[in-house]
Amino acid sequence: GDAFLVLSPYYLAFNRDLRWRTGVQLLPVMCQSSNNFQITKEALEEAYQKAQESNIKIKGLILTNPSNPLGTTLDRPTLRSLVTFINDKKIHLVCDEIYAATVFRAPNFVSISEIIEEIKCDRDLIHIVYSLSKDLGLPGFRIGIMYSYNDKVVNCGRKMSSFGLVSSQTQHLLATMLSDDDFTDKFMFENTKRLANRHGMFTNGLQEMGIRCLESNAGLFCWMDLRHLLKEPTFESEMGLWRVIINEVKLNV
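Given the sequence above, the corresponding structure tokens read:
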């Protein structure tokens, strides 16, 4: 069957959005906590070769930058290596940049669109998806954007968009809001400032309780290390801890 590689840990709803609906497999590229989940060429090659040995045809690689759930951004060298990898394998790259404007401290966000201007690659293999849901706090407006250099993909997206058109009222509201440069600049500045404050408040509170977190700089997430609270290193023990948190603390993690 067909499959996509996906950098782990990844957004769990990819399973619902991709695997359950289309039957396409999602094969994780294992990134280790020991190196802060950095993506390595070895991990990419291992995942690809394992699929080849199982007669699974890899169609592409999916990544989210900034990351959900890690809250980190991919640096320029890493993005270059990813583009080189998919170009060498002649597979597609789908880059979800939905959290692009949520970076609240360095390093800054680098779009994959910048990378393909710097290195030689087959642009027909590169596809970017985005939405206003996170950066502008408008999830209920259901506004998604696809940017692709591949005419076949664009034509397919154009036909499918007929089933999810953005209403005229929504278009008018957003056009008016985004045309106001003063408002937009102030909003983005205030948004990143509040994200930084909330992130600091949350991680400092966890640190006081002896809970370590992955150092992050973007998004709406905090990757906590709760291993010391597990009775044993098993999935069942993880679920037991989750039930305690949700039932007794009333917090869904």
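The chain has two domains: 2-178, 181-248. Try to locate this feature in the token string yourself.
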